[in-house]
Amino acid sequence: MGFMSSLKVLRLRFRYLVYILLANVSNLLGCVNAGAPPQIDIRDSPELVGRGDYLVNHVVGCVVCHSQRDWKYFSGPVKVDDSGGGGKIYDESNGFPGQLRAVNITPTALADWSDGEIAHAIVAGVDKNGEALFPVMPYPYFRSLCRDDVQAIVSYIRTLAPLPETKHARRLNFPLNIIVKTIPQKWESPECPDPYNELAYGQYLAEIAFCGSCHTPHSGGKADPSLFFSGGREFVVPGVVGKVRSSNLTPHETGLGQWSRARFIARFKAFEDPAVLSQALPAGSFNTEMPWHMYAGLSEADLGALYVFLTTLQPIDNRVETWNKP
């Protein structure tokens, strides 16, 4: 092949590459591809609201994330009378590439949202205006929620006391403002697992409680799949000097390898008595992002199912120092 022919081929290939890039940019700049909101019209019942109460306040953490937490106390319990009124602000001061806030999810803010639109935000990551949510809202994990549980969560959120809404501008820096459009996905409405199948149900609970997200070290903003559940992810906790790290949940001796089922359950239930967390922490002491006050309300059956699932994980040798006092 002559020089001119080779050059022509290279030009054609380059032109083809440009077309592909332009097409992809066009897709990225276009509509979010997550399907339409599910057709859900919830008929409330005490049982449905009760299940939603349990999920929201003890499993999926909606209220903890979308409220102000009082970091004077261990595990940062939700401030009194602030349930769902709007949570943490993420911006450059805490390393976030932009600015956003965990928004108000009380009826004040959601009055003009349909049940399906609320569900769509939870499981697909798209708001009522079709805008992609940033996955600090853990909708990639909430995709695993089954239809009955999604309906229960929406039903309960509708019962929250209305709280004043404070508007907060959202800004995502480039290229995050484009990348975020690619993250939402269509919800497949999976079947609910059998709660009597401890392994399957424990895996379901671990997924919708996004345990793996917090208990896996991150690099470049992503969890390291080779170290899933092995702990070591770093957190900046208000009032604590230095980084706090999550613990190893794999069945290695550096994790839960020496823990019995009874010990695992007792660890959570130790925080069930409000008096245990009612004393203000001394200045400069340890605190944790882990909302023990929330998870303490998990039933012993559900905690047992979680334990069963965690014992099936690949054991990973990772001895974590959760906090080093400066």
**Which overall shape is indicated by the principal axes computed on the Cα atoms?**
globular
What's the total number of strands? 7
SSE string, helices as H and strands as E: HHHEEHHHHEHHHEEEEHHH
Mean pLDDT: 88
Low-confidence segments, given as residue ranges, are 1-28
- Main β-sheet, in a few words? 3 strands, antiparallel
Arrangement of strands in the largest sheet = 1-2-3
Helix content: 25-40%
Structure class: mainly alpha
Rg over CA atoms: 22 Å
Number of helices: 13
Distance N to C terminus: 68 Å
- Tally of distinct domains: 3
Content of β-strand? under 5%
Subunit organisation of the chains = single chain
How would you explain this protein's 3D organization?
The radius of gyration is 22 Å and the shape is globular. It is built from 13 helices and seven strands. By secondary structure, the chain is mainly alpha-helical. It has helices spanning 3-29, 46-58, 62-65, 107-110, 115-123, 139-142, 147-157, 176-179, 198-208, 211-214, 261-269, 292-295, 300-310; strands at residues 89-90, 98-101, 171-172, 218-219, 222-223, 234-235, 244-245. The longest helix is centred in the first third of the chain and has 27 residues, at 3-29. Helix content is 35%, strand content 5%. The chain folds into three domains: 1-30; 34-192, no CATH class; 193-326, no CATH class. The strands form three sheets. Strands 1-2-3 form a three-stranded antiparallel β-sheet, with no helix packed on it. Strands 4-5 form a two-stranded antiparallel sheet. Strand 1 and strand 2 (98-101) form a beta hairpin.
